[in-house]
Amino acid sequence: MAASFLIAAKPNLGGFKPEQVCQAAIASLQGVEPHLVRQYRRNGDTMQLRLSQGGNTHSFYCELQADNVLWRRSADSVWQQSPSVGFAYNSSGKKLVIKHTLGSAQLAEFSFRGEDF
């Protein structure tokens, strides 16, 4: 009997922390600055973040897998897949790039630096 194992690749984050990548991804999706998105809970690889603005608070879940950001609103039961959100960083590890794609089409690209958080 043969056993097969699926091993998820740990993301390479350059000089950024996982919560910063999630903050940037959620901020880019919501059209706000990343310092407005705050991590408030973590359970293993899953981070829960909050965005408070205009008297309303929105809650999101986020996970990093390889160079992809999985995200969903806390009220949703499934991870969002449209748009897909990916991340990369420059060779010095000081610039984080978040990309929104739909299939093979790139919809948007956002750049962040450490001081943005």
* Cα Rg: 15 Å
| Spans of at least 5 consecutive residues with low confidence | none
The proportion of strand residues reads over 45%
* Annotation, overall tally of beta strands: 7
Q: Structural class of the secondary structure composition?
A: mainly beta
Write up this protein.
The protein has one domain (18-116). The protein is 11% helix and 46% strand. The protein has a seven-stranded antiparallel beta sheet with strand order 1-2-3-4-5-6-7, covered by helices on one side. With 117 residues, it is mainly beta. Strand 5 and strand 6 (95-102) form a beta hairpin. The radius of gyration is 15 Å and the shape is globular. The chain is built from one helix and seven strands, in the order H-E-E-E-E-E-E-E.
Short description:
The chain has 117 residues and is mainly β. It contains 1 helix and 7 strands; from the N terminus they run αβββββββ.
Features:
117 residues, 46% strand, 7 strands, seven-stranded antiparallel beta sheet, mainly beta
